[in-house]
Amino acid sequence: MMTIDILLTGAAIPSARDALAEAYTLHHLPDIVDVPAWAARDGNRIRGIAATNGVPVSGKLIEALPKLEIIAGFGVGYDNIDVAAAVNQGVVVTHTPDVLSDEVADLTIGLLLATIRQIPQADRFLRAGEWLEKPFPLTATLRGRTIGIFGLGRIGVAIAERLAAFGVTILYHNRRPRTDVPFQYVGTLKDLATQADVLIIAAPGGSETHHAVNAEVLTALGRDGILINIGRGSTVDEPALIRALENGDILSAGLDVFEDEPHVPEALKAIERVVLLPHVASASVHTRDAMGRLMVDNLRSWFAGKGPLTPVPETPWPQVDA
Ligand code: NDP
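That's the Lactate dehydrogenase-like 2-hydroxyacid dehydrogenase sequence above. Prediction below.
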């Protein structure tokens, strides 16, 4: 029987790895010691890539696989995949939208409340026995705040819908205003930061948003301002953020993503009032299983000749002739 060879680029959750191993002949990139030698020997057998979140799929790797048809990403963000190289080679790229939006939005609300009300700090205070000596210091509040969402897409809307129940004002900035939401559009990111006192980043990473949140935007957010980032670390100029926190240009930050994961600057860790999470917004068993299923279903659908289920916008399906 003809088997289909798939390259798995990193660690996969057990349910996805089992499903892939059952359906395909798997090549596991981390186990390949000499990639060029492997590519010369086996490269022309690989018809699909199962791309682990965060592991780069470079143009060089794509070019080394002449029979590659599809790159199925695990995650909705795909800034780890060289999509331009895939387009160039006629390779379809898929991702896992929607199935994680609620989970990420739930975590975002948790991170926002944890940051404003200093929930991890209060927990540390109690465990250290400090409550026996004095009450925990009073904190900032969500009451009366204006929330600016940078990137009101699938996840941004899920965040805004949850926030609406908190009775806060919600503004947003995208490249284009939406006609299907009740939230007020702001034309530039700097104006959004000026008008809001909480800035939530739910925009994608990549060159277009690289360091979009810079010193100027942080200063515009103001001394009472709070930055929440669940999008991508590359969107924030991290040294500028550290300076803004150290100088009191903004009040605090809650971060799930960083510029050089899993490395987090010591200067950031040294700031007691920030809340730092190890990129866990979608990381429940329920949601990771759903993401894995959608990644594998994209491959199954493709190799059954039915096209991809959730292609990225750059590789739309059915294909449109240039
Ligand atoms: P969507 O594509 O639905 O939403 C992205 C939004 O960002 C759109 O509203 C888009 O609007 C806006 N946007 C894109 N580029 C720009 C830009 N250059 N300037 C301003 N706005 C922009 O994606 P999702 O909501 O599904 O996911 C968003 C991101 O969240 C992912 O790309 C990923 O990076 C991140 N994520 C993080 C997770 C985590 O674990 N922390 C988990 C899941 C996702 P418009 O096109 O009009 O500009």
